[in-house]
């Protein structure tokens, strides 16, 4: 059965990439083919932890409007339809601001003259690499580009074809998080068991619940039983998928670009347990 | 001739708002009749992006031929230029004082934006 798990947080540095790569490796160790899609397109770094080079690259583009001035009568319907102000109409003349465009196509739909067509504009790269039975795909947004969502959607077009897809999401709670998690079968939120971590977890869980997606939480860097954090989850009806203990060796391994799943004793087993719970197997 | 002035209030005595796209509002003054009309800009104050572009379209819709403001970014300037609206920067003090400076004829319109745009 094809399944898609998204790994997200709110806070940066919570451990998303370490968990996403860990889950992908745990699947690979079962002999399963898995697709790992790095949707943190402003700072994609799953390849660092997997220790692979992304050799296959192709440009990624976003469709932006181009106006045929011969057909346009300057009615202004396109500018009214655009919620992002990427079109303006003055003196019956359309001005396009491609860098504000979210590539939603509303202007195309709104134009009564059929005067708008979409043309591709480069926004970054989609890259791919193979490691064991893992196919890693990531997006790399060009420096200076503000719109991550169209690139994330292109990375996610490569979801199909395998049994399990792991999505490594971006931090934050804005459009790029929603683009990276929307439509997933389950969202795993990684949160530090600290006041900062829990605060941002609450925001991220609200964002993901707006999408109607099933959620569970991995508490990272837990000291002891993390009772406060567990109470926080219970109050908000957030199921606990697992606790990862505070372990300096994981941080040191990640900091030198290593693979905690392979190199830190106990971490691989913790990821295999987490995977089993996500797949609904008895732990 | 109608002049749009970015301002925090709705009278000639109100202070200049130095921002264009995210100004509190515009007082549009008809220099010939002395009549004025206040255009609130609160919707653009809350806009995630493109505030300057939308404010420039709103100003163009008032029929104003010149804008007096503090600063203007590149996207707003492009819309104002396409609309044939002259932009006068570094306005100071009150709306009345800015209009007086405009009438003196010693204020040159800018030839380009004076500040960088924002991504959001």
Architecture overview:
The complex is a heterodimer of chains A (283) and B (120). Chain A is α/β, with parallel strands linked by helices and 283 residues long. Chain A folds into two domains: 3-60 and 129-278, Rossmann fold (3-Layer(aba) Sandwich), CATH 3.40.50; 69-114, 2-Layer Sandwich (Alpha-Beta Plaits). Chain A is built from eleven helices and eleven strands. In chain A, the strands form two sheets. Chain A has a nine-stranded mixed β-sheet, sandwiched between helices. In chain A, strands 4-5 form a two-stranded antiparallel sheet. The longest helix of chain A has 16 residues, at 195-210. Chain A is elongated and about 70 Å long. Chain B has one domain: Nucleotidyltransferase, domain 5, CATH 3.30.420.130. Chain B contains four helices and five strands, in the order βββααβαβα. Chain B has a five-stranded mixed β-sheet with strand order 3-2-1-4-5, with helices on both faces. Chain B is globular, with a radius of gyration of 13 Å. In chain B, 42% of the residues are buried. The interface between A and B is medium-sized, with 14 and 18 residues.
Question: What's the helix-strand series of chain B?
Answer: EEEHHEHEH
CATH architecture label name of chain B: 2-Layer Sandwich
N-C termini distance of chain B: 33 Å
* Total DSSP helices of chain B: 4
Distance between the termini of chain A: 20 Å
Gyration radius of chain A (Cα, Å) is 21 Å
Instruction: Give the helix/strand class of chain B.
Output: alpha/beta
Query: Major β-sheet of chain A, in short?
Result: 9 strands, mixed
Total strand count of chain A, please? 11
Which chains make the largest contact? A-B, 14 and 18 residues
Q: What general form of chain B does the structure show?
A: globular
């Amino acid at each position: 059965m094809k399944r898609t798990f998204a790994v997200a947080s709110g806070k940066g540095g919570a451990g998303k990439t370490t968990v996403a790569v860990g889950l992908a490796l745990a699947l690979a160790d079962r002999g399963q083919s898995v697709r790992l899609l790095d949707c943190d397109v402003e700072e994609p770094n799953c390849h660092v932890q997997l220790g692979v080079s992304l050799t296959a690259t192709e440009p990624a583009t976003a469709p932006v409007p181009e106006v045929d001035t011969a057909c346009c009568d300057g009615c202004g319907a396109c500018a009214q339809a655009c919620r992002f102000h990427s079109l303006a109409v003055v003196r019956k003349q359309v001005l396009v601001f491609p860098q504000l465009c979210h590539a939603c196509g509303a202007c195309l739909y709104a134009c009564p003259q059929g005067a708008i067509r979409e043309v591709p504009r480069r926004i970054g790269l989609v890259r791919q690499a193979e490691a064991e039975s893992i196919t890693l795909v990531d997006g790399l947004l060009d420096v200076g580009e503000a719109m991550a969502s169209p690139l994330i959607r292109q990375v996610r077009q490569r979801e199909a074809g395998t049994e399990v897809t792991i999505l490594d999401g971006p931090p934050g709670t804005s459009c790029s998080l929603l683009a990276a998690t929307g439509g997933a079968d389950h969202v795993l939120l990684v949160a530090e068991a600290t006041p900062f971590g829990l605060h941002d977890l609450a925001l991220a869980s609200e964002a993901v619940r707006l999408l109607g997606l099933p959620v569970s939480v991995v508490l990272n860097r837990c000291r002891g039983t993390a009772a406060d954090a567990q109470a926080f989850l219970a109050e908000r009806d957030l199921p606990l998928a697992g606790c990862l203990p505070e372990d300096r060796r994981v941080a040191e391994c990640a900091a030198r670009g290593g693979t905690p799943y392979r190199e830190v004793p106990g971490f691989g087993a913790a990821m295999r347990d987490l995977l089993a719970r996500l797949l609904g197997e008895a732990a | 001739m109608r002049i749009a002035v970015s301002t925090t209030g709705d009278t000639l005595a109100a202070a200049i708002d130095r921002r264009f796209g995210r100004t509190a509002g515009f007082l549009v003054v008809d220099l010939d009749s002395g009549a004025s009309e206040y255009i609130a800009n609160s919707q653009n104050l809350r806009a995630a992006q493109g505030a300057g572009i939308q404010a420039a379209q709103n100003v163009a819709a008032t029929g104003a031929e010149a804008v007096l403001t503090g600063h203007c970014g590149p996207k707003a300037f492009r819309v104002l230029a396409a609309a044939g609206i002259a932009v006068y920067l570094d306005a100071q003090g009150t709306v009345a004082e800015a209009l007086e400076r405009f009438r003196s004829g010693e204020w040159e319109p800018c030839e380009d934006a004076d500040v960088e745009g924002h991504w959001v």
